[in-house]
Structure formats: structure tokens, C-alpha cells
Design goal:
The structure is a single chain. This protein is α+β, with helices and mostly antiparallel strands and 130 residues long. Helix content is 37%, strand content 9%. It has a three-stranded antiparallel beta sheet. A two-stranded antiparallel sheet has the order 2-5. The termini are far apart.
């Protein structure tokens, strides 16, 4: 079995000033993550739980995407209705329990990741999950 990495992105961000990355590091890591998710999508797999804790880094800042517990092999244009994932990263349709495309939910989560990389905080904060 391959070694996953020494740290999660969550732990890595905790070591940074303001819990955010400089633009060059953010660009490098985000590009790798997008390439990994693109590969999954080309194989018809939706991850559905992309978050800082599910991305590992090795010593050379190479990422590994982990935790495929919520992932699903999808048929093109098929909608899903299973509520899963992590609230801070959920797309609006998933959070409101509407039918959704798994790939679209992944793309939304990627946007949240990029925002966290550059701003050091989540883009949305709510008091309740309705």
C-alpha cells in the first residue's frame, strides 16, 4: 500500500500565518486537486466529500485525495438525492436536499477549497441547517 502523505491540508493550513496560503502555493496545490478530481469525473466518479481533511500532502507538496466513502459511480445526467458530505463544502442544492449532479457538487466544493486557501476562512457561515 502506498504511503498517503505526512499531513492533511487542514493541518498544513494551521501552520500558515492567517491560516491561508500564498498565491503561488495555492495555485500549485489547487491545480493538482483539480487534475485529480477531473480524472475521477472522467471515470464517472463523483467524490462528494471534498474537503481539507480529505486531501493529504507528502514531503514534496504532492496531493493525494482520500476518503471515497461517499463517492459514487454516476451515469451521465443522472441526478442524485442522497444527502451526504460536509456542510461547509455543500453546494446549495445538496444543502437544501434537492436532487443534484454529483460532479457539480464536487466543483462547488473545489470553489470552497480555493476560497479557504486564499482567505483563511470559509465563504459562508450559517446558524442552522434547514
Amino acid at each position: 500500500m502506498e504511503l498517503g502523505g505526512y499531513s492533511s491540508l487542514h493541518a498544513h493550513l494551521k501552520t500558515k500565518n492567517g491560516r491561508k496560503l500564498d498565491e503561488e502555493e495555492a495555485k500549485s496545490l489547487f491545480r493538482q486537486i483539480v487534475e485529480g478530481i477531473d480524472y475521477l469525473h472522467k471515470k464517472n466518479v463523483a467524490h462528494r466529500d471534498i474537503k481539507l481533511e480529505n486531501i493529504l500532502l507528502d514531503e514534496g507538496n504532492t496531493i493525494k485525495i482520500i476518503d471515497f466513502g461517499f463517492s459514487v459511480v454516476m451515469e451521465k445526467d443522472k441526478l442524485l438525492n442522497v444527502f451526504c458530505g460536509t456542510p461547509s463544502y455543500m453546494s446549495p442544492e445538496l444543502a437544501t436536499k434537492k436532487d443534484y449532479h454529483g460532479w457539480h457538487a464536487d466543483i462547488w466544493a473545489l470553489g470552497v477549497l480555493l476560497y479557504v486557501f486564499l482567505c483563511g476562512k470559509f465563504p459562508f457561515k450559517g446558524n442552522v441547517m434547514d
